[in-house]
Write a structure and sequence with these properties.
The structure holds two protein chains of two kinds.
Chain A: H1 2-5, H2 15-23, H3 28-33, H4 74-82, E1 92-93, E2 97-101, E3 105-110, E4 114-116, E5 119-122, E6 128-132, E7 135-142, H5 143-164, H6 170-183, E8 190-198, E9 201-207, E10 213-215, E11 218-221, H7 225-235, H8 242-259, E12 267-273, E13 276-284, E14 305-312
Antiparallel strand pairs in A: 1-7, 2-3, 2-11, 3-12, 4-5, 6-7, 7-8, 8-9, 9-10, 12-13
Helix pairs in contact in A: 5-6, 7-8
Chain B: E1 10-15, E2 20-25, E3 28-30, E4 33-36, E5 42-46, E6 49-55, H1 57-78, H2 84-97, E7 105-112, E8 118-123, E9 129-132, E10 135-139, H3 142-152, H4 159-174, E11 184-189, E12 193-199
Antiparallel strand pairs in B: 1-2, 1-10, 2-11, 3-4, 5-6, 6-7, 7-8, 8-9, 11-12
Helix pairs in contact in B: 3-4
The chains are: A alpha+beta, B alpha+beta.
Keywords (chain B): Cytoplasm, Nucleus, Proteasome
Family (chain B): Belongs to the peptidase T1B family.
GO cellular component, one term (chain B): nucleus
Chain lengths: 328, 204
């Protein structure tokens, strides 16, 4: 059996030792990392199912899983790819994302184009994601991955805030993100610029898809990062005021928008200072749609309809309780 | 050939004034051979939310059945219908769960939310939501659909004008795509009624 011959990364152990470990959910990394074909069991769902090797997982009922990824369809998708069909391309955010630290806090900026291959799928998407009231995160890479990872860490941060009773720190968000990304070894393709102001001061970090991080006074990521970095390297200085900082960030994003094909449309900016944040959605719109004809289209030849079926919808009835509430 | 070009599809949804329209083609093929001309791509989740799935037909049907199941459970628990934004998040989560072995389809979701405000969104095959204020497209004819909708769309159209616009955009785009066509299926939903129409198109 292939499973037994696989090198699990440390020493060669017997299969059952690893099943024991897996059932404790200690090493999700190993199970995915070294197997050519991810196994047919969901993890980290109930451990009893791990021992059913021959059977398809969750054969009958699609109950909401406990979380994590499910690899059910991998074998079928691989079979289709071997038959000559190309794998699907995902929505990427080609992107220019930047962050810089100014006198009173952090400014984050992003463009707003989402691409699917060479086609622009979304002309005005939001790339600056909310993590905590004092922490925001810009995301580049596969759009589903950046959204899912930032949503997940944002929920974890909120639970942590409830538990500790304190405001979240940027370093907490950083550690949670890098732990998750490293455990998927770069397959969760999310490159992030994380910035915020907490009790220890303003912080700005970059996180790469494989899980490495940098702490910087100014940072750029995405396909337009070189264009934006050239603006920063030329004009950044310490102790910028809020307006100077916003102007510099807008200039860096514009340079990405105009020079990089994967970035485009408008500029979003988020300014975070101690106790206050400002999300300037579509701060600048350097690419307005000017060619629209005011008359619009008028179709003289109507489309031919074969059949029409009209379903009237029920009136939505509002039930208001009149009278006194029941008493004991 | 890409997996999405195995069966062929074209789906578009547009927003109007307190109404929305969702349209799809009707062809089901196996690469270049047509095997059905009345394939149902648009499905009703409840009276005010519709979902249209483009891509591999088997995943279209499986995913639809899973989503109806989840919505029925929600209805039993909450004793009400799901809002379109909530439904979109549900679909996104179900698709992202299969991140490394995805369902090979791209959904387009359209619905009437609170105060009869229309809501449309599309996703790629792993659940990256793309909310739009005007129109969303999906399928093998998506590139032509983008062009046609950009040109023909106007904001705040009434139901009849919206129907005409979406039909013209769909038919002109599928005419330029070999893998989709054979007529069109359009639903126009206003707060008081659902109008379902079958369009006559080129049968080639």
């Amino acid at each position: 059996m292939d499973l037994l011959k696989v090198n699990w990364g440390r020493r060669k152990h017997s299969l059952f030792y690893y099943l024991f470990l897996a059932s404790k959910q200690l090493f999700p990394l190993d199970l995915y990392l070294f197997s050519p074909n991810p196994f047919r069991f969901d993890q980290p769902s109930s451990s009893s199912r791990l021992f059913d090797f021959g059977r398809m997982s969750q054969a009958g009922v699609d109950v909401p899983a406990k979380g994590g990824f499910s690899f059910d369809l991998c074998k079928r998708n691989d079979m289709l790819i071997q038959k000559g069909l190309k794998a699907p391309s995902f929505l990427k955010t080609g992107t220019t994302i930047v962050g810089l630290i100014f006198k009173d806090g952090v400014i984050l900026g992003a463009d707003t184009r989402a691409t699917e291959g060479p086609i622009v799928a979304d002309k005005n998407c939001e790339k600056i994601h909310y993590m905590a009231p004092n922490i925001y995160c810009c995301g580049a890479g596969t759009a589903a991955d950046t959204e899912a990872v930032t949503d997940m860490v944002s929920s974890q941060l909120r639970l942590h805030r409830y538990q500790t009773g304190r405001d979240s720190r940027v370093i907490t968000a950083l550690t949670l993100l890098k732990k998750h990304l490293f455990s998927y070894q770069g397959h969760v393709s999310a490159a992030l610029v994380l910035g915020g102001v907490d009790i220890t001061g303003p912080h700005l970090h970059t996180i790469y898809p494989h899980g490495s991080t940098d702490t910087l006074p100014f940072a750029t990521m995405g396909s337009g990062s070189l264009a934006a970095m050239s603006v920063f390297e030329a004009k950044y200085k310490e102790g910028l005021t809020r307006d100077e900082g916003i102007k510099l960030v807008a200039e860096a994003i514009c340079s990405g928008i105009f020079n990089d094909l994967g970035s485009g449309s408008n500029v979003d900016i988020c300014v975070i200072t101690k106790g206050h944040k400002e999300y300037l959605r579509n701060y600048m719109e350097p690419n307005p749609r000017t060619y629209v004809s005011s008359k619009g289209y008028s179709f003289t030849k109507k489309t031919e309809v074969l059949r029409t079926k009209i379903t009237p919808l029920m009136e939505r009835v509002e039930i208001t309780e009149v009278g006194e509430a029941m008493e004991e | 050939m890409s997996i999405f070009e195995y069966n062929g599809s074209a789906v578009v949804a547009m927003v109007g004034k307190n109404c929305f329209a969702i349209a799809s083609d009707r062809r089901l093929g196996v690469q270049l051979q047509t095997i059905a001309t009345d394939f149902q791509r648009i499905s009703k989740i409840h009276d005010r939310v519709f979902i249209a799935l483009s891509g591999l037909a088997t995943d279209v049907q499986t995913l639809y059945q899973r989503l109806v199941f989840r919505h029925k459970l929600y209805q039993l628990r909450e004793e009400r219908d799901m809002k379109p934004e909530t439904f979109a998040s549900l679909v996104s989560a179900i698709l992202y769960e299969k991140r490394f072995g995805p369902y090979l389809c791209q959904p387009v979701i359209a619905g009437l939310g609170e105060d009869d405000k229309p809501f449309i969104c599309t996703m790629d095959s792993i659940g990256a939501k793309e909310l739009a204020k005007d129109f969303v497209v999906s399928g093998t004819a998506s590139e032509s659909l983008y062009g046609a909708c950009e040109a023909m769309y106007k904001p705040d159209m009434e139901a009849e004008e919206l129907f005409e616009t979406i039909s013209q955009a769909l038919l002109s785009s599928v005419d330029r795509d070999c893998l989709s066509g054979w007529g069109g299926h359009v639903y126009v939903v206003t707060p008081t009624e659902i109008k379902e129409r079958i369009l006559k198109g080129r049968m080639d």
